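TICKET: design request
STATUS: open
ATTACHED STRUCTURE:
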């Protein structure tokens, strides 16, 4: 196979066999600095029409015709894939590998990571990340499935073929496990026919480009591991979000370590969102595969397309130029984030005019040319992707000598910061410009609902600003983010303030009512469904409702009206939990094997209420009527996510401030 790939016609830098001895680019991977690559590789993508026309050189049209069809399964058959190694067991690597394994039971998928704890968690009952439906997918691929009997269709029964089989039924044998997790990176890479690189690519914290350029250290490290250990012809797939032209960096690393050996490089950006990762992977809008215009590039792309075609219609698989593929991921995130900043800029105008940003988003979104998605005003975007990817885009633009483009995208980030800044300052101003002696409660730390990911939460910026005012305490409740993850995120503030108790004022609590008791203001920072007003919560009236509110003065604010032990919180009986939805078809669901039992001292089991249940509770609604009894008057609630029903909240006696709306009370 390697011989066949070597026969690909020469295409300059992007060709498999070409080693450009005159290259001004780095010659060893160690020379490549992540921030300098953009300047180094600020070269246009290979343009076949611009190639020197030597006698006998195939013309572009002839050449294209000679390339194998990426979408042709027969092309894929030239590069059989038996073992896939996924490097990086994080939010992308774990779920992506699990879904590929689920749909390709004949292929071994091995996820490797240097983090032993993470790998142990993937192997156990408590997965390291929370994603609806993920548990079932992992269980069936990782643990295998039970034998299954189904009614046969006509002519299908093989009576007696398997013990106990009747003419009316077919027995599907036990599904073998084909998803594995390991820290043995080198050994796994050696076996792999394809390596998906899905390691973290955060923003550089120091050095040239700090705060904007992508820190490629982990990505380069993974590439080096592959370069030194992979077998010839192993296909390298960029799944991480990387700056445009990273494919060239990969080729250079491979060439430096294994001169002359062909390793096709593909770009296959991931578009999943946290909280809906399994759904996004099972039913993707598109699968983008970027490859080089070489025979081996096309064959490699066909092999990857074939893995996806096991469950994704081929019409949704888009083979494109490798540089377009890398850039389209940054472009997609930048455009989504841009919509959020656009509606947030309008929200500031709404507050000063009496317009309502919710109504504006609705009417603007009804224009089919605009559409309703990503027009929810609020604290702005958080999470590990949007900010860093736009920062990377601005850095790339500047590196390419396009300061106007950089400034354009920078404004999306500026508006995002403005939104959370003015939210926090409004809290302070409303509480009479001082938080001394006051307790603030934060409901929701995650950057969005349905994820336990505490990275890059807008809550961090809000807390930073509140801490400047020296509050008595800040209590945080989030149904999914763990206390240790939140504290790790808050630790970046430690240089400026003592943050967490006992020295600092911040504490993370697992009971929202305890977190709210005696609070001067409750801030809703994540759009968790459990925080939204529900029908059950509406009818209860507080002892002192808005009707009898006496316009409490600052001294009223300090009047302690309750504490949790003294207040009789009549929480209604907990409603039954919403049954878990499985993404698996019914036949696979019925094949799930019983889960292994955790040891008696399992800390995860004890941290999820000690009841042995593995799921944290995100569905039991918060009873705002009860909260109204335990927070201090005049019961300030600041809704940073537009999650609450203003009329219901005011009806229960709260004073509600929402971004993008005039005050409600
Ligand atoms: N999180 C998302 O929703 C999302 C969605 C689409 C794309 N992305 C992109 O995917 C990439 C991964 O994101 P993530 O959120 O999964 O990151 P993550 O931090 O959750 O996971 C990355 C993992 O890679 C491991 N790792 C780093 N270097 C390694 C090496 N050399 N060998 C083995 N393991 C190594 C780390 O230990 C870590 O567990 C990033 O580029 C990100 O921008 C993320
Ligand atoms: O109308 C909206 C929509 C979202 N958000 C906020 O925007 C952030 C990001 O939300 P979302 O895009 O749903 O989550 P992510 O998991 O960050 O997913 C984004 O980032 C991923 C990583 O690159 C991409 O793969 C996804 O396609 C892209 O949506 C969150 O803080 C949301 O609260 C808003 O404020 N208003």
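STATUS: resolved
RESOLUTION: sequence designed for all positions
ATTACHED SEQUENCE:
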């Amino acid at each position: 196979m390697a011989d066949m790939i070597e026969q690909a016609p020469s295409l300059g830098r992007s060709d498999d066999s070409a080693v450009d001895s005159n290259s001004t680019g780095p010659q060893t991977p160690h020379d490549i600095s992540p921030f300098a690559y953009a300047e180094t590789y600020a070269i246009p993508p290979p343009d076949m029409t611009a190639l020197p026309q030597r006698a006998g050189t195939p013309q572009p049209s002839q050449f294209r015709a000679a390339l194998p069809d990426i979408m042709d399964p027969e092309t894929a058959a030239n590069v059989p894939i038996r073992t896939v190694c996924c490097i990086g067991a994080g939010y992308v690597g774990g779920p992506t590998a699990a879904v590929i394994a689920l749909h390709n039971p004949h292929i071994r998928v091995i996820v490797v990571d240097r983090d032993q704890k993470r790998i142990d968690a993937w192997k156990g009952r408590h997965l390291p990340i929370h994603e609806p439906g993920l548990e079932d997918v992992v269980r069936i691929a990782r643990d295998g499935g039970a034998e299954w009997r189904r009614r046969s269709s006509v002519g299908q029964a093989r009576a007696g073929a398997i013990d106990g089989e009747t003419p009316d039924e077919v027995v599907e044998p036990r599904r073998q496990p084909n998803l594995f997790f390991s820290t043995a990176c080198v050994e796994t890479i050696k076996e792999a026919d394809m390596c998906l690189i899905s390691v973290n690519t955060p923003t550089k914290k120091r050095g040239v480009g700090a705060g904007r350029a992508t820190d490629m250290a982990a990505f380069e490290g993974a590439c080096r591991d592959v370069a030194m250990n992979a077998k010839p012809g192993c296909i390298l797939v960029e799944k991480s979000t990387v700056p445009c032209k990273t494919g060239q960096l990969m080729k250079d690393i491979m060439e430096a370590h294994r001169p002359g050996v062909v390793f096709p490089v593909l770009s296959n950006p991931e578009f999943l969102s946290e909280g809906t990762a399994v759904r996004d992977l099972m039913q993707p809008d598109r699968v983008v595969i970027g490859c080089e215009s070489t025979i081996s590039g096309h064959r490699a792309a066909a092999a990857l397309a074939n893995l996806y075609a096991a469950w994704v219609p081929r019409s949704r698989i888009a083979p494109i130029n490798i540089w377009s593929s890398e850039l389209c991921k940054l472009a997609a995130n930048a455009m989504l984030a841009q919509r959020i900043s656009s509606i947030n800029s309008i929200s500031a105008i709404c507050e000063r005019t009496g317009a309502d940003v919710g109504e504006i988003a609705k009417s603007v979104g009804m224009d089919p040319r605009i559409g309703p998605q990503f027009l929810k005003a609020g604290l702005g975007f958080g999470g590990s992707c949007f900010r860093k990817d736009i920062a990377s885009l601005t850095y790339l633009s500047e590196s390419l000598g396009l300061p106007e483009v950089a400034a354009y995208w920078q404004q999306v980030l500026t508006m995002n910061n403005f939104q959370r800044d003015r939210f926090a300052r409004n809290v302070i101003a409303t509480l009479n410009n001082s938080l001394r002696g006051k307790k603030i409660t934060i409901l929701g730390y995650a950057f969005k609902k349905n994820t336990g990911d505490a990275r890059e939460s807008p809550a961090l910026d809000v807390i930073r600003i509140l801490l400047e005012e020296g509050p008595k305490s800040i209590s945080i409740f989030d149904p999914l983010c763990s206390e240790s993850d939140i504290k790790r995120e808050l630790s970046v503030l430690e240089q400026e303030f003592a943050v967490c108790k006992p020295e600092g004022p911040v504490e993370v609590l697992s009971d929202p009512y305890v977190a709210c008791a005696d609070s001067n203001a409750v801030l809703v920072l994540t759009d968790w469904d459990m925080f939204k007003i529900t029908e059950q919560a509406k009818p209860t009236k507080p002892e002192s409702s808005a009707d009898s509110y006496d316009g409490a003065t600052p001294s009223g604010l300090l009047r302690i009206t309750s504490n949790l032990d003294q207040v009789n919180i009549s929480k209604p009986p907990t409603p039954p939990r919403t049954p878990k939805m499985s993404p698996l078809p019914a036949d696979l669901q019925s094949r799930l094997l019983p889960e292994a039992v955790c040891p008696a001292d399992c800390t995860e089991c004890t941290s999820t209420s000690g009841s042995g249940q593995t799921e944290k509770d995100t569905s039991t609604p918060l009873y705002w009527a009860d909260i109204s009894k335990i927070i201090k008057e005049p019961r300030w609630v600041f809704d940073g996510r537009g999650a609450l029903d203003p009329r219901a909240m005011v009806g229960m006696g709260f004073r509600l401030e929402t971004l993008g709306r005039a005050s409600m009370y």
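CLOSING REMARK: The chain has two domains: 61-149+165-312, 337-570+618-658. Confidence is low (pLDDT under 50) at residues 1-55, 57-63, 537-570, 609-614.
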